[in-house]
Amino acid sequence: MEAKEVLKQHIAKIASLTDDELSYVFSHFKPLSFKKGQSIITAGDMVDCEYFVLSGCLKSFFINDDLKMFILQFAMPTWWTSDFNALYNHTKATINVDCITDAEVLCISNSDREKLCNELHNVEHFFRWRTNKGYVAAQKRLLSFMNNNVKYRYEELLKLYPELYNIVPKNLIAAYLGVSRETLSRLYHA
Amino acid sequence: MEAKEVLKQHIAKIASLTDDELSYVFSHFKPLSFKKGQSIITAGDMVDCEYFVLSGCLKSFFINDDLKMFILQFAMPTWWTSDFNALYNHTKATINVDCITDAEVLCISNSDREKLCNELHNVEHFFRWRTNKGYVAAQKRLLSFMNNNVKYRYEELLKLYPELYNIVPKNLIAAYLGVSRETLSRLYHA
DNA sequence: GTACCTGTGTGACCTACATCACATTTGAAA
DNA sequence: TTTCAAATGTGATGTAGGTCACACAGGTAC
Question: What would the DSSP string read from start to end of A82-144?
């Protein structure tokens, strides 16, 4: 399916835009292709855009002082990703985003999103809805973190996103769950 | 300060409404008073409203099968709280909200919020901004959870919200940090 | 083919935090 | 003023998960 059609169907679930409006909105997005392993956002840089995934799988992650990686989010097709903190507040990235597989994305700048939100009430409605979803998901994950052990969280993740099992290596799953790769391995093997 | 004025100044930071619009918006909020210890949302009930805190301090929390409590959020004046998952998805509450101190709040129903967002573009803009803030904060907390030990997270919390130290008992702080009250106590005493 | 690198399994040991039990303080209610 | 419940401190002990070390398998670059 064409990029424009993917975006259209994604937005249409929430907000109804005319074809003209959709074309206008779409004209603000820039299609980009990346290879497996390529970096999209690097901590320390300024962040100008957010990204809508068309194909492939991205990860957004934080690297701490001990060079340990923590994964905030895997981004599959029709998911949005960026360093939203840096993007909204015009500060330097503390989060990285890179490609777990080859990927195609649509990117839109912060200023273009704000312009579109301002010009088209429906677009603002869509983005409000989108962040609502993200907020609720983040709260759920936080609760699961406090309440459930690694095994439960691992199985919860795979139930929610079975496709991750085949695409994402276990060391990255561990970094998402916030445990060492050894512990994850021992859940089913040792 | 009067309730309407508090809400006005809170919204005005983000979206400019005329006095007439503000009065119209305000007319959809219902002022409520609660005593310390009173429950505002109970898990299992349907959730109809979200709450804007005028005075006092609320907590939103989850109780697991072992009756252990996990606090999602403390809500101080000008903060919003509810079980947003239940509210947006019209499902029963899994989260409770109650009063740590006597409290005054403004409450608005889900349908009235949606109506106002639909009628006034500026209001939708405000609520998009609000959720953005919440989303970014939730992600930060998640990262801190994975990356930092209890002592660090405790000091981070008190640096961000020093007023909590005097208002909120330590067992609730522990429930927010996701550790036992004993561990929190031992950080500085044992 | 050889060399290499990424991903994964696993043993030995360490540590942060949980749990249970009980003591002590404090503040509000009667 | 007395009483009681909530909040807090602290010792003893258990455990989930971390860390380090090493082994090995399967791609892939040369």
Answer: S-HHHHHHT-B-SSEEEESS-EEEEEEEHHHHHHHHHH-HHHHHHHHHHHHHHHHHHHHHHHH
